């Protein structure tokens, strides 16, 4: 049996009726048997501040652990003005 690959899914919209969340959930439902997609929630993450790196909030630690344990990450981001998000 092949190894199951764990994919961390990050939904870029926090709205409860977000199309992005619906897409992410649909992808998880139709994913092949070798992929397990899990949404990693970002809504409770405090805004990043480098000063917190030495003693990070529990939310940061939990988020980093879940991302680190995944085999891959999938970002499902909103589309605005009929365009793709630009990298910062």
Describe this structure in words.
The chain is α/β, with parallel strands linked by helices and 88 residues long. It is 27% helix and 19% strand. Strands 2-1-3 form a 3-stranded parallel beta sheet. The longest helix has 12 residues, at 19-30. The model has no long low-confidence stretch (mean pLDDT 90).
Mind telling me which CATH architecture this is? 3-Layer(aba) Sandwich
CATH superfamily: Flavodoxin domain
Return the average pLDDT rounded to an integer. 90
Oligomer: single chain
Measured on Cα atoms, how large is the radius of gyration? 15 Å
Number of helices: 2
In helices, the fraction of residues equals 25-40%
CATH class: Alpha Beta
The shape is: globular
Give the strand content.
Answer: 15-25%
Structure keywords:
single chain, globular, 27% helix, 3 strands, 88 residues, three-stranded parallel β-sheet, alpha/beta, Rossmann fold
């Amino acid at each position: 049996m092949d190894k199951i690959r764990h994919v961390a899914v990050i939904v870029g919209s926090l709205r409860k009726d977000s199309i992005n969340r619906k897409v992410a959930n649909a992808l998880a439902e139709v994913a092949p048997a070798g992929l397990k997609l899990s949404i990693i929630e970002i809504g409770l993450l405090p805004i990043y501040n480098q000063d917190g790196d030495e003693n990070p909030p529990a939310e940061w630690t939990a988020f980093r652990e879940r991302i680190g344990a995944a085999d891959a990450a999938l970002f499902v981001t909103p589309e605005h003005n009929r365009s793709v998000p630009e990298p910062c």
